[in-house]
Each structure stands twice: as structure tokens, then as C-alpha cells.
Amino acid sequence: MIKKLSLISKKLFLGLFLILISISCYAQNTSNTTDFWNNVRFGGGLGFGLTNGGFNASVAPSAIYQFNEQFASGVSLTFNYAKYDNNKRYAYGGSILSLYNPIPFLQISAELEQLRINQTLSFNNLSTIEDNYWSPALFLGLGYTDRNFTVGIRYDVLYDDDKSIYANAWMPFVRVYF
After folding, report:
1. Which CATH number among 3.40.50.450, 3.40.50.300, 2.40.160.20, 3.20.20.70 corresponds to the domain 2-177?
2. Which of helix, strand or coil describes residue 141?
3. pTM of the model
4. What are the pLDDT tens digits along the chain (178 aa)?
5. Residues 112, 122: Cα–Cα separation, whole Å
6. How many CB atoms lie within 10 A of CB 25?
7. What's the DSSP call for residue 124?
8. Are 138 and 128 contacting, i.e. CB atoms less than 8 angstroms apart?
């Protein structure tokens, strides 16, 4: 079952990435380069999570293309650190994201993320196991937006308690774009 989800997430990630590249190429061909870059916004997000015995923090710089006042889409890099009891996980990777504002102060988001996980598991300080693997995440989020700033919460629908870098499926976020 997990291998099927991994294969599906890889195909979904590739498909969405190709769509984003196609849209980007179309936008560049239909207008001059100056107009394209006027619609690109840079910024990113910060993530933070706490649970019993655990901590998780992430930094995700990104660039989005603002198609209109309601819809934007782009790419992001992710750097993540998590510590649970004596266990540590580092993660790095990328994601594609879409942002939709049905009304000016409400943002709905979807983000497909693929992370490379490097973890160290310690058992009563007697033995240590190192494990490295890929982990997908599909976040659906809701946030309050005021100009360039959004604060909200997102949910990972692919959350796996054994493999995810995140403390749980729910994660608050802060995004800023300029």
C-alpha cells in the first residue's frame, strides 16, 4: 500500500510540475519578459510544530507567479529539522504550490512536497540506527491573508506516522510574499 502511494505521489508530483512549467512557458511566450517578472513574487513560509516530546521547524523559500488577484502558483525549496525524544530528522527537498483567494482575506492552498529524509534513531543511548528515504506530503491549507502576509493551518493528507518528518498531520504556517 505504501509503495503504491509513493508511486502515485511521484507521478502526481511529476504531472503537476510539468503543468506548472507549461503554464510558465505559455506566460512567457504570450507577453514580454518584463510583464512576466512583474507577476513573480518571492517569499516563502515558516513552519513550526510541537507535540509531546517532539519539535519540528521548517523554512521554505519560494517563488510564485501571480496569474490574477485570486490565483497564484509556484515552486518552493524546503529545509526541515525535527527532534522527537532522542531521535533527530533532517529533511530537504522541494514542492509545488497553488494559492487561491476566493475573497481577499481568505487563502486556500495546496502543496505537493517531496523530501529526502535523513534520520538518526537512538534507543536508550545504547544503539543508533540511521535511515535515509524519500517522503511525500500533500498539504491542504486555509489561512488569513492581509496584503503580503498569510497565517493559517495546513493538513497533510498523506501523513505517515512512521515516516513523516512532521510531528503530526496538522501544522500551522506563516507565508510572506513580496
Report:
1. 2.40.160.20
2. strand
3. 0.72
4. 555 545 555 665 655 555 555 555 554 455 566 788 999 999 988 877 787 778 888 899 999 999 999 999 999 999 989 888 778 889 999 999 999 999 999 999 999 999 999 988 887 767 788 889 999 999 999 999 998 899 999 999 999 988 887 778 998 888 999 9
5. 30
6. 10
7. T
8. no
